[in-house]
Every structure is written in C-alpha cells, then in structure tokens.
Amino acid sequence: MKLKSQRDFWSGLMFVLIGLAFAWAATAYDFGSSASPGPGLLPFALGLLLALLGGLVLFKSLAIESERGEPVSQIAWRPVLLVPVAICAFGYGMSRLGLVCTMPVVTALGVLATGEQRWRWVLFAAVLATVLAWAVLIHGLHLALPVWPGVAS
C-alpha cells in the first residue's frame, strides 16, 4: 500500500495515538451516570473523538491522492522544545511569581518558539496576554490565583 500523503499519514497517526492515550488515561476516573457524569467522561469522549478524527485523516492519507503529498520536512525543534518549556514555566511560576510576573515570561517563550524576535511585538503580546489572563481568570472566573509574588488574589 502506497502513501498518498506523508503529512496526513503522520499527523493522523499522531492524533490516533494521542487520542487513545487520553481515552485510556481517562479510564482511571469515575465515569458517573448519564444523569450525573463523572470527571472521566469528558476526557474519555474527547480522546475517542480525537482518535476517530485522526483515523479519518489516516484513512485519507492511504486512500485519497493529495495535492500536497510531498514528504514531511525536517522537524522544527524550536517550537517542539520551547512550547513545553513555556507550559512548565507557567505551572512553576504561577504559585511562586504570580500571574503578572509569569505571563510575560510564558508569552516571551511562546513568541520565541515561532522564531519571531521583534521585541516590540513580544512586549505587546506579553502585556496583552497578562491583561487578558487577569480579566478572564481573576476577574471573570474569580479564581484564587496569586497576582503578584506571595500575594493571593
């Protein structure tokens, strides 16, 4: 069997594997009932949905000729490495540095992952992300997150 599109094949396979992993991990939680769903139902259903959509993309890569069937290019290591670092920095920094100090660092790491290094844009994005995070998380959802280092909201 010949691959019609390498990109679709590898992305479909990735979605199937990630979806099945999420569905499998969700089985550790209680599913509840239809009247009172438990915490495992949504991640299980979303994992299966992701695996199903990945299966459709995988099928397409094997059955339907694609215009962009060229081989997959090199892996972009910068975003592959910097995005998880930004996520970990958010988790580590929120409890220690607060929202106002953590969000600019996380935003700068995210922008650096794209390869864009226009510092005006990084500063603008950091301020905008911090204001939006404060508005949604602290003001809108009333979450008890620290805003400044050592100060709870």
From TrEMBL:
Keyword Transmembrane helix set for record: yes
One Pfam short name: TctB
Transmembrane helix among keywords: yes
Superkingdom of origin: Bacteria
DUF1468 domain residues: 10-146
UniProt keyword terms in alphabetical order: Membrane, Transmembrane, Transmembrane helix
Transmembrane segments: 41-63, 75-92, 97-114, 121-145
InterPro entries documented for this protein: DUF1468
Protein name, as recorded: Tripartite tricarboxylate transporter TctB family protein
Organism encoding this protein: Roseateles agri
